[in-house]
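At this stage, I wrote out one protein's amino acid sequence and its backbone structure tokens, and that material follows here:
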Amino acid sequence: MEPNYSEYSISELEESLRAIDQEAYPERTNELKKELNNRLVNPTTSYEVEDGFEANEQFYKCPHCEEKIGFFSKALQSWSKIRECPQCKKPFAVTFNIKVFFVALLPMVIFNYFMIKPVLGSLGLSKSIGLGIVCGVLIIISTRLIRVGSESNTTKEV
């Protein structure tokens, strides 16, 4: 079964190229190099925000250049719907993945009830601080960055 390199991220392609035995698998090595060069030269873009899971959906990485974007960076903390990557200057949208939120909700509530509340109670702090911690973690892990086309195709909200 041949791997589908078009579904790999750039970092996964680079890691595969480092890990592969290039003498034993010259065809796969060439395919990896070709796909990596193709990605670096011609990054693919989608021109609209889609609701379903996309391969370009990233967790605090630019969906275009795959560079990390800090949670408290200016790019993520702006009020506009369409934002700009600080590295490659291409637009991306910030979305909230409701599926991830609900999948993580029960484990976080259990963690809060059995781990956070007892610790906060023993420290003499309000136990409702745990609810704030759980809500913050859920929001952070549910936030996703997705590609949009050029800014001429989308309107920027202020």
About this structure: Residues 98-122 form the longest helix (25 residues). The longest strand covers residues 91-96. Helices lie at 10-19, 26-41, 98-122, 129-142. Residues 94 and 145 are 5 Å apart (CA to CA).
